[in-house]
Amino acid sequence: MIPAAFDYIRATSLSHALGLLQDDPDSNKLVAGGHSLIPALKLRLASPERLIDIRNLPELKGISLGDRIRIGALTTHAELLASDALHEAAPIFRQAANLIADPQVRNRGTIGGALANADPAADWPAVVLALGATLDVVGPNGPSRVAARNFFVDIMTTALAPDEILLAVEFDRPQPGTRFRYRKIRHPASGYAVVGVAVVLRPVDGAVAEATIAITGATGHAFVAVDAAAQLIGKPLSEATITTAADVASGQAECLADNYAPAAYRQHLIRTEVARALASLDGD
Ligand SMILES: Cc1cc2nc3c(=O)[nH]c(=O)nc-3n(C[C@H](O)[C@H](O)[C@H](O)COP(=O)(O)OP(=O)(O)OC[C@H]3O[C@@H](n4cnc5c(N)ncnc54)[C@H](O)[C@@H]3O)c2cc1C
Questions:
Q1: Positive or negative, the Cα torsion across 262, 226, 180, 107?
Q2: Are 236 and 206 in contact (CB under 8 A)?
Q3: Closest residue CA from atom 1 of ligand 1
Q4: N or C: which end of the chain has fewer CB within 10 A?
């Protein structure tokens, strides 16, 4: 549980951080909240030569709410939980943040760190997928934007290059009447999602006009259950449509297996969690 020796430097500006990364991207590691990276260093799953602390960079901070909502990568889980303005626009952030770990982790861990880390059991990947978010990134060639749907590539692997920094998450302010639900079956030790489900759904005149269902915890990376949500479009939320959507979502996934949850159990949890998430929106 003792990390290999490393150097530490606190970046004083975004260009400073980018410059430091360029030196040798593969032997540097950015550190934000440290609540995924430090445990990995202690277990020697990662042994970077240098940590670049990005916690003081203003470009990665804050929540701004206009027609587009922008959440800086350094926003902590606790800040996402506490923001009343964000809760009013997109209550799914408070729903999910409330289920992440414990207050200590929520006070230090950041949404950007969680997305860049891409733990298959992390909560935020499902939320940003369900919102159709875009991730703002900056690298040696300047800024770029990646759709969340193209960001999560594999277990702990994203579309970010080692010399890029995630700046923020952005999405359109959800339309009035949109309904949200994040729920998960928590691992009893860590609180991570054994299976987590994020639903964003907009009914019009009693029928579902738009719906996105995203799932985390079950497979190598969070994914959008496209065919499952398609089952709901143009129909009212009913026991029959919910059951069909939940069955389709479960059938789409090639689930992970570990000592706690075999693949068949995760498959079962997708079905029950999608059904519960959708049923909880009925009459919301
Ligand atoms: C006991 C415990 C329980 C937990 N339970 C949960 C849980 O229930 N649900 C959940 O989702 N998570 C959980 N976590 C993880 C926690 O949410 C982490 O804080 C989060 O995953 C990583 O955020 P961080 O800011 O700490 O990132 P760090 O640990 O600092 O960094 C993680 C990785 O992301 C990279 N990185 C960080 N910021 C950026 C950036 N802006 N641009 C590019 N790369 C970046 C780092 O280089 C590193 O590779 C738990 C952690 C612990 C220790």
A1: positive
A2: yes
A3: 190
A4: N
Element containing residue 117 per DSSP (H, E): helix 111-117
Find, among 66, 32, 72, the residue nearest to 168 by Cα: 72
DSSP 3-state of 200: strand
Angle between helices 239-252 and 263-279 (to 10 degrees): 150
Q: Measured from the CB, is residue 97 less than 6 Å from ligand 1? A: no
Q: Please name each of the domains of the chain with its CATH number.
A: 7-53 (3.30.43.10), 58-172 (3.30.465.10), 179-279 (3.30.390.50)
Residue whose CB lies within 8 A of the most ligand 1 atoms, among 110, 124, 135, 152, for a mutation test: 110
The token pair at 212 is 């996105």
Q: Ligand 1: which of 37, 61, 76 to mutate, judged by most atoms within 8 Å of the beta carbon?
A: 37
